[in-house]
Amino acid sequence: MDPETPTLVVSASVRDAIVERARDGRPREICGVLGGEFGDERSRVRSQYPAANVAETPRTRYRIDPERQLSIFDRLEERGEEIVGFYHSHPTGPPRPSATDAAKATWPDRSYLIASLEPFELGSWRWRSGGGGGARSNDEDEASISDGDDAGASCVAGNGDEGTFERERLVLE
């Protein structure tokens, strides 16, 4: 894997909470915000903040409730944490961003953690706005917890920026 590949460090307790919530929430996608220490090359998740999925079709899409999102951002600030990224589940799909995920991405350089349930796998991605428009893939074994497809997603984001999801190294501690 390229040494410049960004890394997301997630504690086992945060991972377990997200996976349990994803299993309990199926067949709907679940979603939330990741808090902790954000860095361009390495981010560390200290906490996860669940949010209601208010998408019109929650079995195949997610949308974080806007009021809850603002409340979470306030809570992060109170706790001295930064927005590391966002998470959601794919109850029956792979742990990679869908074209819809890419079209709705609005937080450049933040992590998007995806929990796939069938089979179980976690994948982590960073949205890179502008420059390139092509998917960038990295070594699969370091980018997710188990084997899976390493395809990326590229398109125009919800904020009008062209961009790409870039696979990032996922480290559990």
UniProtKB/TrEMBL annotation:
Region (Disordered): 128-173
Gene3D superfamilies per record: Cytidine Deaminase, domain 2
Protein's UniProt name: M67 family peptidase
Signal sequence extent: none
Biased composition range(s): Basic and acidic residues: 164-173
GO biological process: proteolysis
Superkingdom per UniProt: Archaea
